[in-house]
Amino acid sequence: MIDNVSIPETFDLPDRLTIEQKKKDDMLFDKALELIKQKDALLIAHYYTSETMQRLCEASGGFIGDSLEMARKGRDSDKKLILVAGVRFMGETAKILSPEKTVIMPDLSAECSLDLCCNVEDLKRVKSSVKDAVVVAYANTSAAVKAQADWIVTSSLAVELGKYLTQQKKTILWVPDRHLGSYIANMSDSDIYCWPGRCIVHDAFEANALDFVKKEHKDALVLVHPEAPASVVAKADYVGSTSQILAFAKQSSAKEFIIATERNIFYKLSLACKDKKFIEAPVASTKGHCISCANCPWMELNTLEKLIAALNCPKSHELSVDENIRLGALKPLERMLDFSRDLKEGKIILE
Ligand code: 13P
Ligand code: SF4
């Protein structure tokens, strides 16, 4: 683990929405839908946004997906106005891939703790001290960090890329998620210098408490996102990205699942598997309070109220990426999308 980089001990989290604010948001559904159609925008939302946002996305003919699919959809759509409901790196990725499109977000201050754990100056310094390593950056990073990387990867492709680079006898400098980094190293037997960042949502899943829940639900399968700690991953029946968890639950013959990822995924899980039961994996708490309660506080910034404001005033909600940085980040992002395509088409064979 790399130890000479600055990682925030705590994060300045946005205030939680009150029940009144959530109710108000629900009442704005029709207005938001009307406006999306009027402005001919494509709404792309992550599975971790609220159920109301996901329903709006479905009703407007938009797209809900994991971070890899969101990137692909933004690039391939012929709509000129892309509305990204997620966190900032997701909006930036859309802009990097489609500079000619207007990319807006309900709230430009929707951070991600992983992004905040990796500043570009630290990365440049560490990079120069491990010159032999290939820099692989998780998609959950700023455009400036991406521009320093050889490869970008999302959780759905991370192990495969680890195996691919190991086949080529490469050493990896991985940023910024410590848990995903060690998971890649274990699964692909790769040689990794690992950054010590963390996702405040997934880092809080708790292995001992999970044992109790498993005892109460003996037949349940445990599905875990790889940003969770190794002790939780070790108890998983399946580890995967949000889309992969969803696909696994759909095709599985099991009827009960314990889910260790952000709780808004329950909307799609329940919709896709009406006859199955989903149980939240337990999270650690301090003095009786959990930090996130498996609910990403930055994803929650994506309210319908702000989405309406963004459509009414796109200029103040628009993503911009410096052109030099964009060009630097474009290469490793395109490498990822090509890698994903080549894997699917069987052009890359992993041992
Ligand atoms: P996915 O790549 O699985 O969508 O994950 C993104 C993310 O932010 C996980 O916390
Ligand atoms: Fe970032 Fe974690 Fe929120 Fe995902 S759940 S956006 S990794 S803070």
Automatic annotation (TrEMBL):
Keywords: 4Fe-4S, Iron, Iron-sulfur, Metal-binding, Pyridine nucleotide biosynthesis, Transferase. Coiled coil: none annotated. Pathway: Cofactor biosynthesis; NAD(+) biosynthesis; quinolinate from iminoaspartate: step 1/1. It is an enzyme of class 2 (transferase). Its cofactor is [4Fe-4S] cluster. Its EC number is 2.5.1.72. One of its GO terms (molecular function) is transferase activity. PANTHER family: QUINOLINATE SYNTHASE, CHLOROPLASTIC, QUINOLINATE SYNTHETASE A. NCBIfam families: nadA, PRK09375.1-2. This is Quinolinate synthase. The gene is nadA.
